[in-house]
Specification:
The complex is a heterodimer of chains A (112) and B (115).
Chain A (H helix, E strand, L loop, with lengths): L3 E3 L4 E4 L4 E7 L4 E9 L6 E7 L2 E5 L2 E6 L4 E6 L8 E9 L7 E2 L3 E6 L1
Parallel strand pairs in A: 2-11
Antiparallel strand pairs in A: 1-3, 3-8, 4-5, 4-9, 6-7, 7-8, 9-10, 9-11
Chain B lengths: L4 E3 L2 E4 L5 E6 L6 E7 L6 E7 L2 E4 L8 E4 L6 E5 L8 E8 L9 E2 L3 E5 L1
The chains are: A mainly beta (112), B mainly beta (115).
Amino acid sequence: QKEVEQDPGPLSVPEGAIVSLNCTYSNSAFQYFMWYRQYSRKGPELLMYTYSSGNKEDGRFTAQVDKSSKYISLFIRDSQPSDSATYLCAMSSEDSSYKLIFGSGTRLLVRP
Amino acid sequence: GAGVSQSPRYKVAKRGQDVALRCDPISGHVSLFWYQQALGQGPEFLTYFQNEAQLDKSGLPSDRFFAERPEGSVSTLKIQRTQQEDSAVYLCASSSLGTVNYGYTFGSGTRLTVV
């Protein structure tokens, strides 16, 4: 079993929809939680970063971390066709904060 | 430069051939990382440099993989006697500090195909 599990999708939604993406993990030592967006043939780009539990909002994006359930989420409001990409969750522990453990990614398609 | 630059973008190697992949990090970035991304998977950690020191190489899959950063800027990932299972995108990332808080900037990767 992988340390970080993520539904591969694809997830197809109409423009303007609210998108919910999530990951589960098994390592209770994880403290740093990130969401990256990756367009085809490009490297991952950091979208959101959260330390420990809680919520964080940035524009149309909201990240949530529930450490008691070992579950993290990314919500995208008013989704746009330009949001179509693969979304990767990533996390790391306090003693190896530089070593990111990624999920396998969820492909999102936002239809105009 | 403005971003992390990797070369070549694409590399086709015959099984058994040696390859060298280059990474030019953002100027002044202290930390440099290599990740391997197989098709349909998330990136997997290979190795970490702080300046010229290789602080963690625990993710290198075998002794055929070797990375260096001799002057603390450009890094090279070398794979000897390539095998088909080495086919993947190799991503380089850099950051101004070692901690994840500040996020990494990834390059676009080198797509290696071993035939």
